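Lay summary. Proteins are chains of building blocks that fold into shapes, and those shapes determine what they do. In this project we predict the shape from the chain. Here is one chain we studied, written as its sequence of building blocks.
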Amino acid sequence: MRHPFKLAGLILAFLSLHLTAASARDVAASKGELSVEDLYKAAACGADPGGSCKTEITRWPKTLRHKLRIHIREPGAGFPDDLVKPVIASVKLAITEINVSGADIQLEVVNSADAPLQVHMIDAAWGDRIADSGDPVLDGARMRATATGLRLAPGGNDIERASIAVSGNIAPDIVRAAILKALLRALGFRYAVDNTFYTGKSVFTELGHDIDKIRRQDMLALRLQYPTGCKKASDCLK
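And here is the predicted shape, written in a compact code that computers can read:
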């Protein structure tokens, strides 16, 4: 029996070529409205407002980001049939949101198991450890509404591979928002922003899954993560 949940977080499993481990949810706490740069650094590297990054910023390399291929895998055994179409549609909608943001990254769905970004549909409930998924980037992560795993290139901060798992226990009304959050995590936004000002206003917020579109500050943060060559973020709006 499925038990839908309304408030669901994301967990990011950081993996290198030599280590596989699941981490607790990474959260960047702040108060009040932030500048675009502070929101960006909070979501990308856990920085306090006006402060330095707590972790290195990770990005997809330029060689992959202009046509970043995403493969949506066949649902795993036991994954609810009635969730499959909403998951696939939500991945495509999230891709559209990112592709029209003006950031220097473009995503596309392909039917290729060797795509660097994989989306799984797994019959796992909140709190379950993912195991035997067939994807070492995911195994060991603890499931929430979704789980996101990254593998970084040796000795650097370039993302080499990413995988997203969608829980078969996810509430249907949060699928679209949860997948958008997960996909942004897979692009390097590793921290949830714990700030009541942004509840209901930003896709990066820690609580709630009521944001299924990239808002203005989110869009500018995405452009800072994958800059287009504008001298400052606001110039990208011209």
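What the prediction tells us: The chain has five helices and eight strands.
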